[in-house]
Amino acid sequence: MKKTIILLILFCFSNFAKADWPVGKKRTNLTPSFTYYYTDRVFGADGKVRVSANGDKFTSKMLGLYGVSGLSRRVDLVYNIPISMITAQNIFEKNTKTGVGDVSVGLAYHTPSKDLKSFFTVKGQLIIPMYSNTSIPHLGYGSMGAQISANYSFSPKKGSYLVAEGAYSRYFGQIDGPNQYLFNLTYGKELSNALLISITYNNLISVSADKTFSTNLNANKDFTIGKLSGAIGKKISRTVTPYLQTYYTIYGRNSGLGFGFSFFVMIKIP
Asked: Of 74, 119, 168, 236, which has the most beta carbons under 10 Å away?
């Protein structure tokens, strides 16, 4: 995904401060969110940080709704709907675009251990662009795609969890893809007073025959990016838990060096 917006969506929603366990038949988890991202520096092809001579800046604000609905004890329907506002500017011009981004929908199949303390999950999702790239900045690739992922989640000790996830994405609406490989590692722990914390490491590699680099970050297809993020949440009831998450880019290639935050609320129904 560069699609910085879609990167953020997948980064934030794929590890929303919880282990990836089934929600249960006829149950639903909804997670509305607001995400902010900003960068005015980039990693070049050599991985070194540089500042644009034209003062390029890239900002995104996003409202999202991520949902998981239990179809059976092991199968969940997963879906994500993002509404994004992108601003790309420099000393010469400023361009802004707002709209629905890439909607994703798919299925997750969970295989529990005998003691139900760990789960192996496989997901398959379609990526459906709800826009066209007729003007800049781009909300994404404007290309149909698919993602398959697998993760293993378990509790290393009481009150904590660890999730390791790998994913492969392919955008097949264009001849030059890209193909993308994502790895997430998340550790979370429940503290006293119903506080929950988590830390996540993300690594994304995007491979394409199109090596072009643009300060309009959503157009780039060949890049690498690594991030660290942390989240803190508090259970205010059995069904509602708000979280605040922050993240920072720690390395990259042909990508933005940025920071941001997300505020989201996990709601269990019923």
From this structure: 119
Q: Is 13 helix (H, G, I), strand (E, B) or coil?
A: helix
Give per-residue pLDDT as tens, 118-161: 999 999 999 999 998 888 888 999 999 999 999 999 988 888 99
> How many CB atoms are closer than 10 A to CB 232?
15
In a domain, 270, yes or no: no
158 in a structural domain: yes
Residue 125 is assigned to a structural domain of this protein = yes
Half-sphere CA count of 227, side-chain side, radius 13 A: 32
The pTM is what?
Answer: 0.89
> How many domains would you assign to the chain?
1
Where residue 73 sits, what CATH number does that domain have?
2.40.160.40
Examine residue 168 and state whether it is found in any structural domain, yes or no: yes
Instruction: Quote the domain boundaries for residue 60.
Output: 4-265
Say which amino acid occupies 49: V
